[in-house]
Specification:
single chain, alpha+beta, three-stranded mixed sheet, two-stranded antiparallel sheet, 5 helices, 7 strands, elongated
């Protein structure tokens, strides 16, 4: 399968053979339109329960570096289907959003109701972004429980 969003492409396959085949077709069709794949930006992630050495692969004179995780459309994707790293990052971003508005939250001029509304509109969405789509474990759900 090939997923595309703006200039980001994601190829998902079950076998190495189908990855090579799909990549070859993508490279050929792209070249037909004058587009070329940037070898330095192109990476691959192997999702498996067993550990494999992290070597790159070569497909049609293009070397693809293997990575353990990457960021795609604002979310961290990793090879062991774990969301802990994503949740830690979201909590960190939420803390950053809170600290950016710390003076407003400490202000004596604003009511508690106004501060709560600010929290619900400025901080909480940053932390909960993408939570509806992820299969978070109970431990992780408790970390971001509001």
């Amino acid at each position: 399968m090939l997923y595309a969003y703006a200039d980001d492409l994601l190829i998902t396959t079950r076998t190495m053979h189908s990855l090579v085949d799909t990549f070859q077709k993508l490279k050929e069709i792209s070249a037909h339109f004058g587009l070329y794949i940037n070898e330095h930006k192109t990476k691959y992630l192997r999702c498996t329960k067993t550990q494999h050495k992290t070597d790159g692969i070569d497909i049609i004179q293009t070397h693809l570096e293997q990575v353990k995780s990457f960021k795609y459309l604002g979310s961290i994707v990793n090879g062991n289907n774990s969301v802990e790293e994503e949740i830690k990052g979201r909590i960190s971003l939420g803390n950053r959003a809170f600290r950016a508005n710390k003076d407003l939250f400490k202000s004596k001029l604003l009511t508690k109701k106004s501060k709560l509304r600010m929290y619900q509109t400025l901080v909480r969405p940053v932390v909960t972004y993408g939570c509806e789509t992820g299969g978070a474990k109970r431990k992780c759900k408790n970390q971001i429980n509001f």
